[in-house]
Amino acid sequence: MKFGWIMLLILAVARAGLAATPGMAINPAAGGQYVGVCARHFVFQNGLRQQVVYSGEVVATNAMGSLHCDKLTIDLPSQDSTNQQPTHALAENHVTVDFVKDADTNHITCDQAIYLYEVSKGETNDTITFLGSDSVPAKMQNSKGWMTGQPLVYDNTHGNFSGVNVETHFRIPASENNPSNRPTSQLPAGSSR
């Protein structure tokens, strides 16, 4: 399953924060996607470290889905940087991500979602890490099943999804050629699993 949409949603929110910084304007003719961010509070911190912080019932939405959390912090490149790629975003507390892919609703819950982008020695690190707590790990679920892990990590550079201490449960579609895979009600009389 691909999780690029998560990175795109967090990145879209980060870029929306960029658009809100002084001296920058949104150019609708340039294309792109619309992102909505609602929160009780918003702070833009300008200085050596530019940062946008949304807090209090944060909801970020775009055409791909939604991100809900208590606090969203986005680190922005310096104003003199030629690369406007946000380097770090942190969604904290009661984090949920919902999106529809291939007509299936996907739902992720965790305590933190951490987006990291950096280029070092010609290598790009572009990841999203989903962290739960010791007692409640990060969880991803849809109609096909669910998975937990502590952490779950999506590597956008390589398209890999991985986890540590993973537990996975999934449904195998029923098949006419595999009677053991049919629901119990369809097994011949007197049969058991």
Question: Would you spell out the secondary-structure blueprint of this structure?
Answer:
Elements: H1 4-19, E1 36-38, E2 41-45, E3 50-62, E4 65-76, E5 88-101, E6 104-120, E7 123-131, E8 138-142, E9 145-149, E10 152-155, E11 160-163, E12 167-170
**CATH class assignment:** Mainly Beta
Strand content: over 45%
* SSE-based structural type: mainly beta
**Helical content, roughly?**
under 10%
Number of domains in the coordinates? 1
* End-to-end gap: 30 Å
What is the number of E strands?
12
Corresponding CATH superfamily: Lipopolysaccharide (LPS) transport protein A like domain
> What string, H for helix and E for strand, traces the elements in order?
HEEEEEEEEEEEE
Cα shape: globular
Radius of gyration: 20 Å
Average per-residue pLDDT, rounded, comes to 76
Low-confidence runs: 1-8, 14-30, 184-193
Main beta-sheet annotation: 12 strands, antiparallel
CATH topology: lipopolysaccharide transport protein A fold
- State the helix count: 1
CATH architecture: Sandwich
Fold and architecture overview:
The protein is mainly β. The protein has a single domain (about 5-185), classed as Sandwich (lipopolysaccharide transport protein A fold). It is built from one helix and twelve strands, in the order αββββββββββββ. The protein has one helix spanning about 5-20; strands at about 35-40, 40-45, 50-60, 65-75, 90-100, 105-120, 125-130, 140, 145-150, 150-155, 160-165, 165-170. Strands 1, 2, 3, 4, 5, 6, 7, 8, 9, 10, 11 and 12 form a twelve-stranded antiparallel sheet that branches. Strand 3 and strand 4 form a beta hairpin. The longest helix is centred in the N-terminal third of the chain and has 16 residues, at about 5-20. The chain starts with a helix and ends in a 23-residue tail after the last strand.
